[in-house]
Amino acid sequence: MPHSLVPLPYPHDALEPFIDARTMEIHHGKHHQAYVNNLNAALEKTPRLFEVPLDRLLAELDSLVPEESRLAVRNHGGGVLNHNLFWKSMKPNGGGAPTGMAADAINGAFGSFEKFKELFDEAGMKRFGSGWVWLVADAGNTLKVTSTANQDSPLTVGQRPLLGNDVWEHAYYLKYQNRRNEYLAAWWNVVNWDEVNRRLRG
Fold first, then answer.
1. Do 69 and 146 reside in the same domain of the chain?
2. pTM of the predicted model, to two decimals?
3. What is the Cα–Cα distance from 152 to 148, expressed in whole angstroms?
4. Considering the domain boundaries, does residue 154 fall inside one?
5. Tell me: the pLDDT tens digits for 39-80?
6. Is 84 helix (H, G, I), strand (E, B) or coil?
7. Cα angle at 145 between 85 and 61, to 5 degrees?
8. Angle at 121 between CA 133 and CA 93, to 5 degrees
9. Is position 53 within any domain?
10. 45 and 107 together in one domain
11. What region, left, alpha or beta, does residue 99 occupy, with left being phi > 0 and alpha being psi -120 to 50 degrees?
């Protein structure tokens, strides 16, 4: 079956005042939808790939996807999966310090939550142009902060995404204009640590 746009797990205005409703409407309904449409168009050339879960498709891109479709699947498939993760990484009345496994893992890997935030925001600011900043687990299950360009997924380099923030301008420009630092700071108020714990367990 073709891929479809996942519904937002909350209303468009649920993350106000940190992320405004109009940005959410455009980001989800226009940008994310376009990635879904373009991914489906790329996979039409090899219909059997519709049956492959998207995370596996990206993790095994070189072996599963024909070369002529690989870049489109990497770009648009990454766009679909990254956004699927992104919406669930946030929730109304979220934020605060991590709890449970996330707290233990972050403190163990980075020394403290504040140090982790510092590294995460620094990576987000240093990402030139468009991309993402991530908390990932590598093949040895070690936590790291990293960033990817464009819509590249950490899965393509063997890393499991646990938490990600979108630093494309369309994620923040209506409210924050060019002030990416303010967006990064505000975003911590909507982080869904329950979802991070779920991904750690998974």
1. no
2. 0.96
3. 6
4. yes
5. 999 999 999 999 999 999 999 999 999 999 999 999 999 999
6. helix
7. 55
8. 85
9. yes
10. no
11. beta
